[in-house]
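Dig into my protein:

:::
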Amino acid sequence: MFNVGGLELLAIALVALVVLGPDKLPAALRQAGSALGQLRRMSDAFRIDVTAALTDDAAERPGADLRVD
């Protein structure tokens, strides 16, 4: 997704360890994972809603995409 390699992840982890410290790092990672999961669920729900709306609209108007104005 972000095209981040192993060395970059190691550098990010070391910076996070120095900035947050070993006592706050697990809680911060848990919070970031929770936010990422919530964002992914919202994105999936939005995609499903848009797809459903588009398929419902196309089902109500058969042949609408063939009309040329």
